[in-house]
Amino acid sequence: MAMSIAPVAEPHGSPVESPVKAADAHREQRIAARAAALFQERRLFGWKRLDRAFAWLMAGQWAFAVVIALLVSPYGWAGKVKAVHFHVYLAVLGGAVLTLFPAALAAFHPGRALTRHVIAANQMLWSALLIHLTGGRIETHFHVFGSLAFLSFYLDWRVLLTATVVVAGDHLLRQLLWPESVYGVLNPEWWRFLEHAFWVLFENTVLVLACLTGVKDLMHAARQQAAVEALRESDEVKSLALEMALAEARR
Amino acid sequence: MTRRGTVLAAAGLVWLASLATAGRAVWDYQTTAGAPGEPPPRWPEGSRVPAPAGGRATLLVVAHPQCPCTRATIAELGRLMPRLRDRAAAHVLVYRPAAFAPGWERTEVWSAARRIPGVSVHLDLDGVEAARFGAATSGQVVVYDARGRRRFSGGLTTSRGHVGESVAHQRIEAIVTGGETADGTSRVFGCALATPQGD
Q1: What is the DSSP code (8-state) at residue A91?
Q2: Selected residue of B3, B32, B162 to mutate for chain A interface (largest A Cβ count, 10 A)
Q3: What is the H or E stretch that residue A84 is in?
Q4: pTM for the full predicted model
C-alpha cells in the first residue's frame, strides 16, 4: 500500500501554540523596553560625565589663556610707559564669559541638549580666543580640530553641527567685514571660506560616522544587557518553580 | 516659566550680551591701527642707517622692543625677506629710551630680527632715527628703492600682533622684485613710539 506523506500544516492560532508565541512576544517587548531604558540611561550618564569634563576643560583653558596672556603680552607700551595689555583683560574676562555659563549649565543642567550645544559653541569660541591670544599662530588652529574630536565623544552629531556653524559663521563674518584678517588678501574669491570649512567638514564626516556607529554600538550593548537580564530573570523563575515542586514532592 | 527656567534664560541673555561685548572689544582692538607717521619721500640725509646701495632696495623697520605686536612684524619680516631674493637689505631700528638701562632692548624682537638673513639690527636711542624716518608706531616699515625714493610705507601685519599673509607682503614683493611702479601703503599695527604727554 502506497503511503503518501503529506506535510502537516500547523494551523495558525492553534490553541497549543498561541500562549507560547504570546509569551515570546511579551518577552520581546519587555526586552525592547528595558533595552531602550538602558540605552537612555547610559547616554544620559555619558552626557553628564562629558558635561562635567568639559566644564573642567574650560576652567583649564581659562587658566591657560591667562598664563599665555601674562607670558606673551603682559604689557602694552607707549614709548617709555607701560600698561596692562588688553590681552590680559581679555583672557581674564573673556575667559570668564566662555567658562562660567557652560560650567554652570554642566553643574545645574547636566545631560540636557541645551548644555551640550552651549558647550560646543563655547569650545569653538575658545579656539578663536586662543588663536587671538597667540597672535594667529597656525599651531593654535589645531585647537579647532582637537575640540571637534572631543565634542564627538557626546555621540551626538547635532553638537558637531553647532560647533561647525560657529566656526563657519566666524569665518564668514570675517570674510564679509575684514577678509584680510582671515585670508591675508583684500578681495578673496567668494568660495574661500568654503575652502577653510572643507577641512572642518572633512573631519566632521568621520566624526559623524563615528557618532552614528557609537550610538549603534550603545544600542546593541543595551539590547544584549536587557536580554541577559531577561534570561537571568527567567532562570530564577524556573529555579523557584523547581524548588517549589521539589518541596511539594518531598511532602 | 519656572523659577529655574527664568534664571537660565537670564543667564543665557547675560552670556550672549557678554559675548557680543567681548567680540566688539576684540574687533576694535584688532582693527585699530597706530599713527601712520610721515616717512620722508627720499632717504633722509644725516641718517646713520646705511643708505640704499648696490642697486638694492632698503627696508627700514621701526621696532619697540617690548611691544608684543612687533613680534608678529618681525616674524612676517622673516617670511618676507626670502621672497625678496637678495634684492633688498633690511634694517631694524630697535628703540630704547636713553634713560633706560642697556639691555632693556634685548628682547625676543631683537634676537628674532638678528636671526633673519639680510637683516641688520641697530639700537635707536630715544627713537632719534625713527623720528628721522617719520615713524610713529612700532612695526612701521618704509621701503626705499635703489635710488633712495620712498616706495612703500605701512605695516606688515593685517591686524594687531597677528601673523599671516598680508597685502603689504605682496606690495613690497612686487615693488622690490617685480618692478611695480605704483607706491604702496598699508596700516600699521603696534605700540606708539612716543610717550604720552604727562607720563
Answers
A1: I
A2: B162
A3: strand A81-84
A4: 0.85
